[in-house]
Predict the 3D structure of the following.
Amino acid sequence: MTKSKSDNVVWHHATVTRERREKLNGHRSVILWFTGLSGAGKSSLAHAVEEHLYQSGCRTFVFDGDNVRHGLCADLGFSPEDRVENIRRVGEMAKLFLEAGVIALTAFISPFGADRARVRSLVPHGEFLEIFCDCPLEVCEERDVKGLYKRARAGEIKDFTGISSPYEIPRDPELVVHTGALSLEESVTEVIKFLRGRGVIG
Amino acid sequence: MTKSKSDNVVWHHATVTRERREKLNGHRSVILWFTGLSGAGKSSLAHAVEEHLYQSGCRTFVFDGDNVRHGLCADLGFSPEDRVENIRRVGEMAKLFLEAGVIALTAFISPFGADRARVRSLVPHGEFLEIFCDCPLEVCEERDVKGLYKRARAGEIKDFTGISSPYEIPRDPELVVHTGALSLEESVTEVIKFLRGRGVIG
């Protein structure tokens, strides 16, 4: 836990609360935390779920390694400490979107259980929904959309998850989607069904 | 400018674009950057503007020193470098809300022109709207809602803007609100009129 260094800071109470935003939006806000290997389809699934939700009139936003690492976390690299800080910031940011009444979808490898648990602990129970994109390493490596596995095998990228750095499989995720076996459309259907079951959307 | 350390990162293209979000929301998204001395009424004004916008059905979110410094920037203090990093992160975060179709209101002293200019440069022309809450130091110090001026004068807080650290008055803000002279209601009216004039809201 990071202790706040801001002793001179007190909380302001806004009149536009999360509850009022959710009422305006017509759905609950949650964090959908997609986790899995590089190439498991986290980002594609998050964006496809977002498209479905948009068409249902929901307010959403997808964070992925791509948009966040060029901005908020542009000062961070891929060292163990920097990865921890990256996930911490993403968690805090997703929390703000949660307060803004938005369904925040995050698509990060987030290989370490402790980092995911830390984000979970930031928000009330039931509002951090961990979705494990379960895809075998062989399948991810065969796809190798960005050519990263090849480079990792060649030793050009160090600490590459699944090759030279561990991926800790979620012990008790709210949802497992077998992205290696299902089509994108089928995976989206799974997530939407799950969100309905949880009462996030109508 | 911070150079990205993430060489292995490529941009994903989402199908739910900012334009589509703005269409769904029925208003444009912008960053309303409130700046001014401690006690100038930035946070109160931002929250009151938000209430007005909410009642008009707009999607908004207010960032202030209070909610951000307990979360995303909990690792930062008030040293010159930490203040720069604080404003950088707030800017990057506001940019993500902008992309999410939300009217992002930020209420930070943000005393340095260079920091404000850096945030301005992050987003397209016309989407960073600097609102100078112009309130004389004497008035702020007399109000002293949080008792901070008293403590700053007593030397208990170092680098306190207006007392022991400079506030650089905005040279060319999009709007000046004389929060020392106007009532909160009058100030809100000024901002709303300004947003209509800019075509942000209908």
